[in-house]
Each structure stands twice: as structure tokens, then as C-alpha cells.
């Protein structure tokens, strides 16, 4: 059911992965900056499942109504304006930055030993 109602997340995630790989190659695979920027690009793929709310809203709301009822679907429809995707992308990037900082602190010794940083 997930892929049938939210197929747009798959190509979007592939796109984010390709951008992340391109950035990693452009900055260098052993560059700390390259790894960080690549991770941020890949973090944006977490927005993929929410794209159906924006680009396939009618189908998404119809599916919600089938599973959760018409009142829930209407409330969800009212609470999800098209501009909602921008804060979600910003939150994904902020989460990526926090994840980068945590990873650097927690695994920095291992990265130095491997010669990545």
C-alpha cells in the first residue's frame, strides 16, 4: 500500500541519494566537509513520505478517510497547506546538522584512525 499511494517518495529519495553522491565526489570522499554536505543532502530524503500530502493530496486524503474516517481526513487536509513542505525540508536539514555534530563527537576517534578527517 505504501508504494501504491506514495510512489513519489521513491524517485525523490533516489534523487537525494544521487545528489549526495555527487556532492561527496565533488568535495572528495575523504573530506570532512564533503561527508557533512553529502549527509545533509541525504537527510532531505526523509521528507519523501510527506510529498504525497503536497503533490497527491486528494489521493492521500482519500486513503486516510478509508483507514481513519472522514473527520480525521478532513482535519488532516485542513492542517496541511502546500507550503508545509518547506518547514519539513528545513527540519530535515537541521536534523542532519545535529546528526553530523553528534557523529563527529561520538565517532571522531574512529574517523581520524581511518584517515577520513
Short description:
The protein has 117 residues and is mainly alpha-helical. It has helices at residues 2-5, 9-27, 32-43, 51-55, 57-68, 70-78, 85-114. It has one domain.
Tell me about this structure.
The chain has seven helices and no strands. It has helices at residues 2-5, 9-27, 32-43, 51-55, 57-68, 70-78, 85-114. Helix 5 (57-68) packs antiparallel against helix 6. The radius of gyration is 18 Å and the shape is elongated.
Descriptive labels:
117 residues; mainly alpha; 0% strand
Topology:
Blueprint: H1 2-5, H2 9-27, H3 32-43, H4 51-55, H5 57-68, H6 70-78, H7 85-114
* Biggest β-sheet strands, sense, barrel: none
Distance between the termini: 43 Å
Q: Catalogue the unreliable spans.
A: none
Number of domains: 1
Give the count of helical stretches: 7
Number of strands: 0
What is the structural class?
A: mainly alpha
Shape: elongated
Using the CA coordinates, give the radius of gyration: 18 Å
Task: Give the proportion of residues in helices.
Answer: over 70%
H and E string = HHHHHHH
How much of the sequence is in beta strands? under 5%
Task: Report the mean per-residue pLDDT as an integer.
Answer: 86
Amino acid at each position: 500500500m505504501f508504494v501504491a499511494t506514495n510512489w513519489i517518495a521513491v524517485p525523490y529519495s533516489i534523487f537525494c541519494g544521487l545528489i549526495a553522491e555527487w556532492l561527496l565526489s565533488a568535495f572528495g570522499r575523504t573530506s570532512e566537509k564533503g561527508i557533512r554536505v553529502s549527509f545533509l543532502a541525504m537527510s532531505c530524503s526523509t521528507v519523501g513520505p510527506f510529498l504525497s500530502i503536497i503533490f497527491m493530496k486528494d489521493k492521500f486524503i482519500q486513503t486516510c478517510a478509508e483507514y481513519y474516517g472522514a473527520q480525521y481526513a478532513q482535519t488532516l487536509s485542513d492542517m496541511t497547506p502546500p507550503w508545509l513542505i518547506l518547514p519539513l525540508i528545513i527540519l530535515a536539514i537541521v536534523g542532519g546538522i545535529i546528526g553530523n555534530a553528534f557523529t563527529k563527537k561520538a565517532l571522531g576517534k574512529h574517523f581520524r584512525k581511518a584517515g577520513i578527517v
